[in-house]
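=== RUN LOG ===
request id: a7f3
mode: sequence -> structure
chains: 1
length: 209
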Amino acid sequence: MPETLPFSPAADRNRQPILEQLQRLLPASGALLELASGTGQHAEHMAPALPGWTWQPTEHLAQTLPAIAARTAHLPSVLPPLPLDVTATPWPGPPRPDWTACFDAVYCANLLHIAPWPVCAGLMRGSARVLRPTGPLITYGPYLERGVDTSPGNLAFDQSLRERDPAWGLRWLHEVQAQAEAAGLVLAQRIGMPANNLLLVWRHRTAAG
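=== RESULT ===
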């Protein structure tokens, strides 16, 4: 593998704790759509540990796709990465095939706080459409919560994000829930993770009971 591939220290730190949760949450096999694959480090690490799953990486930034492809080319269960704008309707958009109810899981780490707020609605709406009826949307990252003290580290991180781009920043969980519910998804599980992050499991309202 070329040593010049982009590398995220955060993705390297969080990949194993997230993988352990995916191994617990997901069935033995299926098709997974990863949104905002970034450097491809999560696909590279997790796909071999989920041998029954086919992994479809995607990324909004087209210039990152060659690096994701290079990082995962040796993994037969990882498909070539595709460009995807989560605010587009539908996913993935013509001329590609329709993805309606094609995936058994959608996975997205560290997107909502480094994207404009409309991305949240697009994420929920698109995920609800491409997921099979019982499939989960699994999101990971830091959130703000009513009634829960925000750690000093997350407060500083939120401030630094907003200084970089006023449209960025940590999202209030109840506002994210409202966007999910508008798309027909409900929060089924809230899992505390290292470094004051949350793993959230969203499901179709009918599947969540």
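=== NOTES ===
Helices lie at 9-25, 41-46, 65-72, 118-130, 152-164, 173-182, 205-208.
The longest strand covers residues 185-193.
=== END ===
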